[in-house]
């Protein structure tokens, strides 16, 4: 890695958690992810969800067509209460499903078909443990009695810790962690447990949603937490630990679906993802840890080769536009109207 104050060249990174959507929006957003990343783990929360090998194969073909050459989408199976272990395992064996995604039912956008109780997919998880297929977890309980800011921490106690204890060989990615408790749980678990961290959870705390009025473009799930949690996530991301790696959770929604009486959760950060993460690593005095987080730890966990090519970022002001036109759908990107300190060169 070349590490100078003005230019940084690293192995080409991958995005280990992204929502690319489908149809015209896919056509509009895929290029942003493909520009910065060689591969991406693509979330399956479409409508209907991607729960069969056939659906994932067809979706992969549409993504490749939208993204153009040089980008590899890595597909995930959307776990439901009734999905067959054979279908999940066959998709993995055929190189279609890289991993499977556990959405607790009604935890977030597009999770209505999710799992109502992990006991219902016990056979699937045992099979995944046996074949070494990673389980990607949206880690929040959905119990209405649990405060929304506590849902991740309670999930660790009620669901994740027992799961990791009962299936000690299961490879788990705790996705988009937002709390000090999650960072500690992952750090203290075995090498089979890792986590992704988004740019927004490194930049904002929950105040950002209420700064001078309600700010729907700062709303995602899991929701941003207190400042102490943001600081713990920054420490984890920049620690050099191979358990933490880049996953943007870029989740585009049309402006009209955000700025409304019941706005969707999701932050569209793909267009300036690396610039956003790099600002954090620079502020933390950890530029030397950036390549590990962005380009090395993820492939190591997934058992994939690191990318051969490199990308370069340089210190230069980058103005993030107020809106991005995603093939006819206007979307507000993360950092809209801000000037970031790094520029993606290519
Ligand atoms: O904020 C979010 N948006 N969190 C999720 O878990 C889903 C995502 C989406 O699909 O919009
Ligand atoms: Zn997500």
Observed structural traits:
346 residues; binds zinc ion; alpha/beta; binds (4S)-2,6-dioxohexahydropyrimidine-4-carboxylic acid
Principal-axis shape: globular
Fraction of helical residues: 25-40%
- The CATH homologous superfamily name equals Metal-dependent hydrolases
CATH class placement: Alpha Beta
Strand order of the largest sheet: 3-4-5-6-7-8-9-10
Largest sheet: 8 strands, parallel
**What is the succession of H and E elements?**
EEEHEHEHEHEHEHEHHEHHHEEEE
- Structural class comes to alpha/beta
Count up the domains: 1
Please, what is the average pLDDT? 97
Rg (C-alpha, Å):
19 Å
List the ligand species: (4S)-2,6-dioxohexahydropyrimidine-4-carboxylic acid, zinc ion
Per DSSP E runs of 2 or more residues, the count of β-strands stands at 14
What is the percentage of strand-forming residues? 15-25%
Low-confidence stretches: none
Give me the CATH architecture, please: Alpha-Beta Barrel
CATH topology: TIM Barrel
Describe the structure.
The chain starts with a strand and ends with a strand. It is globular, with a radius of gyration of 19 Å. Helix 1 packs across helix 2, helix 3 (85-93) runs parallel beside helix 4 (122-131) and helix 6 (180-188) packs parallel to helix 8 (227-237). By secondary structure, it is α/β, with parallel strands linked by helices. The model has no long low-confidence stretch (mean pLDDT 97). It has an 8-stranded parallel beta sheet with strand order 3-4-5-6-7-8-9-10. A 4-stranded antiparallel beta sheet has the order 1-2-11-14. A two-stranded antiparallel sheet has the order 12-13. Helix content is 34%, strand content 18%. Bound molecules: (4S)-2,6-dioxohexahydropyrimidine-4-carboxylic acid and zinc ion. Residues 17, 19, 43, 249, 251 line the site of zinc ion.
